[in-house]
Amino acid sequence: MKRRPEASDPTAGCPGFRFAGVAAGIKKNGNRDVALMVADEPAVTSAVFTQNRVKAAPVRLSAQHLARRKRLRGVVINSGNANACTGAQGMRDAKDMAVRAAAATGASSAEMLVASTGVIGARLPMAAVRAGIAAAGAELRPDGFGDFAEAILTTDKRAKLAALRTRIDGQPVTLLGCTKGAGMIMPNMATTLTFVATSASVSPAQLTAATRRAVAPTFNAIAVDGDTSTNDTLAVMASGQRGAATAAGAQAFTEALTELLSNLAQQLMTDGEGVHHVVSIEVVRAASAATAARIAQRVAVSPLVKTAIAGADPNWGRILCAVGNAGVAIDPDRLALTIGSVPTVSRGAVRSTWDEAAARAVMQTPRYRIVVDLGLGGHKARYLACDLSHDYVSINASYRS
Amino acid sequence: MKRRPEASDPTAGCPGFRFAGVAAGIKKNGNRDVALMVADEPAVTSAVFTQNRVKAAPVRLSAQHLARRKRLRGVVINSGNANACTGAQGMRDAKDMAVRAAAATGASSAEMLVASTGVIGARLPMAAVRAGIAAAGAELRPDGFGDFAEAILTTDKRAKLAALRTRIDGQPVTLLGCTKGAGMIMPNMATTLTFVATSASVSPAQLTAATRRAVAPTFNAIAVDGDTSTNDTLAVMASGQRGAATAAGAQAFTEALTELLSNLAQQLMTDGEGVHHVVSIEVVRAASAATAARIAQRVAVSPLVKTAIAGADPNWGRILCAVGNAGVAIDPDRLALTIGSVPTVSRGAVRSTWDEAAARAVMQTPRYRIVVDLGLGGHKARYLACDLSHDYVSINASYRS
After folding, report:
1. How far apart are CA A227 and CA A296, in angstroms?
2. pLDDT recorded at residue B386
3. Do the domain assignments include residue B16?
4. pLDDT per position as a tens digit, B52-106
5. Tens digits of per-residue pLDDT, A220-251?
6. Which of A65, A259, A301, A329 is the most buried (most CB within 10 A)?
C-alpha cells in the first residue's frame, strides 16, 4: 500500500541530527549568520554544486571532501560573505571553517561540508566566523532547524523550510529541508544553498541517484534572472543506519525527496528578488523532452516575457518570439498558447475569439500557467518563471552599495 | 595610398537612390510610418535576417525574393505593426505591400524587399498601408533619407543615420545608412531594421561577403536585452554600375561598411530602451576568438551585471561570476579585470590596492570599457552592453497597454 508523504513541522527536527544558527557579526544587520548541522553518526551524504567555472573556495573544498568519503558528519555555513574570488587565502579560510566545525562537534574536518553565501570578493572576517562556529557548536539541538534556516539567508525576505513524514520499507522516515536564495536563481544551482536532513536508510549510490533525479524538475527548472553563482550547493544527509533500502524503497525516497525539493523551490521563487508573479511555463507536445525543456527555459528567462509578466500584459507575441529564440526546430504554424485557461493562440496566430481581458485578469494573479503547445510530439517540460520588476532592478542596482 | 572614409551629411543622399517617408496613420501618434527606398536601376543587394524560428511574413517574403535574384530595385517598410504571427493573411499582406511598392516605383514586385516593425500579432491596416505606399512613391527624392529614417522608427527616441564618403578603386563612393530598434537587440539581428545604400561597385558575392563580415563585429556584437525578434532585417543595396571591384577595392568596401555599421550599432545602443550607460565588454588573451566572444556575450547579457551597471556599482564579483557562466574552460586564478583604466582584479582576486571610488566614478560615465583578461592565449572579442534600468522595465511592462 502506497502512502503519500505528509507535511510535518520543520522545527520538530529529524532523528539523528542536531542544528544551530547564531549571530556572529558577519552581517551588518545583526541577524543570524553562522549555521551548523551535525549528524550524530556519519551519515550518507550527496551534494550537487554550481556549474559556474568560477567556484568559491567552500564549494571546491566540499567537493574534495565528498569525493573522498560518502559518509560525513555535518555542514557549516556562513552567510553575509561568499568567500568567493578570494584566492589562496579563501581556501585557507574555508579549511579553517571545517577545522573549527569539526572541533565544535567532535568530528574530523574531512567529515564536514562548508558553504558560504553573500558578497563576493571580500575576505571572511575569520575571528567572527570562528567565534560563531564555536557558539553554534554549543547551541546544537534537535529542534534547532528554525535557527539554522534563518542563519543561511542573505537578501531573502523570510526563512524557507519544509518537512515531510512518510513510510519507506515499512519504516517511518522524516525529510527536513531549508533553502535560501533570492537573485541569481537558475538551473545548475545558482546562489541557492539548500540542505536536507533525512532519517531514511539509503546507500551512497541510491542517495546520489535520488538527489540528481529530484533536482532536475525542481531546483534545475526555476529561473529568476538567468545567472548562476559561484557558491551554489545542495546537500542531502541521510542518518538511517539500516543499510540500503529496497529498490521500491529507493523509488519512494526519490519521490519524497522530489516533493520536498519542489516545495522548497516554489518557496524560493515566491521569495525571489522583486517577485510578484510566479508563472509555470509548460511546453507540451514537443518532439523531445530536451527540446521542451530548452524552450521552456528560453521563455522563462526572456526579459521581454518577464517584463510583460510584471505588467500583467498578455503580450503573446513576445512569448512566441521567445519560443522561436530557443534554437530548436519548431513549426510556427502549429504553435498554440494558453494563458491560464484562456486559449490565446492557435496555429501560430491569435484566435479571433481571444478574450484579452480574461487573459489580463489571469496575469494579475500571483500564480498561473502559460502552456505552449508545439503540436509536434508527445514530450513536455515545465519551468518556473517570474516577473522582472522595478523591485528587481532596485535591489540589484544597490546590493553592494 | 589609403584614405580613411570621411563622415558626410546623410541627408545629402547617395547617387542612384531616392527615398521617402510618410505618415499613413498606422502609428497612433501620427508620426511617419511608411518608408520607401528605390534604386534607379537594379542594384546588387544582400541582406541578413533574424535567426528566430518564428519569422514574420515580410522576412520570409524578402528572403524568397533575394534567393531568386541578387539585383533588386528597392525596399518598402512600415512601422507600427510587425505583421508577425499573422498566419496566411500576413503573407498575403506582405505580398500586397511588394505589389503596391512596385506599382509606385515602376519596378516588379519580385524586385522589392519588404520589412515591418511594431506590434506582433495584429493584422496590418492595409488600406492605410496602401495609401501610404502610394504617397511615398509620389514623394521619392534623392534627399529624402531623413524622412525615410524617421518612418522606420518605433519606440526609438530619435532617428539614427550615418553617411561615409571614401574612394574605392580610385572612384568616389558614398555609403548611407540608418537603423532603428530599441528593445530586443541581440546578435542575429534582433528587432532592428537597418538599411544601407551605397554607390559602390561590387559583385553579389562580394556584397554578401562584405555584409557578413561587417555585421559580425557590429550588429552581431551588441545586446540590450538578449531577445531576438521575428522581424530583423539588415539590407545593403549597391548602385555601382561598373561591375565587380578589385580585391583591394572589395576589402576597402568591407572596411567602410564595417565602419558605417559600427557607427549605427553604437547609435542603436545609446538609444536603447532605458539605456543610460553603453559599456564595451572586451575579453582579451582568450584561447580562441569564439570563446572570447562567448564570454563577452555572457557578461553583456547578465542581468546582475546590467543592474550593477545601472547602479554604477563596481561589483567585479558579478562580472567574474558571469565569466564563469559562459560554459567556457577558463582558469579562475588567472582572471584579471579592469574597469575603465582602474585595475580591479588580478589572479582571480581583487587587488589590495584597488581604488573602488575611481572604479565607481568610471561607472558613473555614460561610456566606458570593462576589460576581462583571461591570461590564456592571444584572442579577443568585444561586445557592447548596457544597463538594465527602471526605465527598461517601465517601457517594456507597458508597451502594448
Report:
1. 16
2. 86
3. yes
4. 888 999 999 999 999 999 999 999 999 999 999 888 899 999 999 999 999 999 9
5. 888 755 556 788 899 999 999 765 678 889 99
6. A301
- pLDDT recorded at residue A227: 59
Angle at B185 between CA B179 and CA B191, to 5 degrees: 60
Task: List, for residues A250-300, the tens digit of each pLDDT value.
Answer: 999 999 999 999 999 989 888 766 788 999 999 999 999 999 999 999 999
Domain count, chain B: 2
Mean pLDDT of chain A: 90
- Smallest CA–CA distance, residue B175 to chain A, in Å, is 32
Name the active-site residue from B86, B117, B191, B344.
B191
Residues 6+ apart with CB under 8 A from B192: B179, B180, B181, B185, B219, B229, B232, B234, B268
Nearest to A316 among B52, B121, B321 (CB): B121
Nearest to B194 by CA among B173, B213, B215, B166: B215
Interface predicted TM-score (ipTM): 0.76
Are A52 and B324 an interchain contact pair (Cβ–Cβ within 8 Å)? Answer: yes
Q: Is B166 designated active site?
A: no
* Residue B347 lies inside a defined structural domain of this protein: yes
Residue ending a domain, among B223, B238, B270, is: B270
For residue B208, the enclosing domain spans 6-270
**Chain B closest-CA separation from residue A251 CA (Å):** 33
Could you tell me if A56 and A150 lie in one domain? yes
**CB within 8 Å of A117: residues ≥ 6 apart:** A77, A78, A79, A80, A82, A152, A154, A180, A191, A193, A231
Q: Which residues of B123-142 are buried (b: 16+ CB within 10 A; e: fewer)?
A: ebbeebbbbbbbbbbebbee
pLDDT at residue number A396: 64
Task: Give the torsion sign (CA, B291, B181, B310, B366).
Answer: positive
Interface A-B: count of C-beta contacts within 8 A: 209
**Interface with A, mutate which of B393, B399, B400, B401 (most A CBs under 10 A):** B393
Q: Does A183 touch chain B (CB under 8 A)?
A: yes
Return the residue matching grid coordinates 564579483: B317
Grid cell digits, residue A344: 490565446
Please name the residues in contact with B175: beta carbons below 8 A apart, sequence gap of 6 or more. B5, B14, B163, B164, B165, B166, B196, B197, B198, B200, B256, B257, B260
- Specify the CATH number for the domain of residue A242: 3.60.70.12
Query: Does A184 have pLDDT greater than 90?
Result: no
Q: What is the pLDDT of residues B176-233, one digit of tens each?
A: 999 998 654 433 334 789 999 999 999 999 999 999 999 988 988 887 555 567 888 9
Residues in Cβ contact with A102 at an 8 Å cutoff, skipping those fewer than 6 apart: A73, A108, A109, A111, A112
The one-letter amino acid code at A225 reads: D
3-state class (DSSP) for residue A247? helix
CB contact under 8 A, B87 and A307: no
Instruction: For residue A396, give the chain B residue with the closest CA.
Output: B307
Specify the DSSP class assigned to residue B222: B
Q: Give me the residue from A184, A317, A322 closest to B85, CB to CB.
A: A317
Could you tell me if B105 and B177 lie in one domain?
yes
Q: Are residues A229 and A136 in the same domain?
A: yes
The one-letter code for the residue type at A2 is K
Encode pLDDT of B154-174 as tens digits: 888 899 999 999 999 888 999
- The pLDDT tens digits for A48-76 are 998 888 899 999 999 999 999 999 999 99
Grid coordinates representing A199?
532519517
> A397 vs B311: CB contact, 8 Å cut-off?
yes
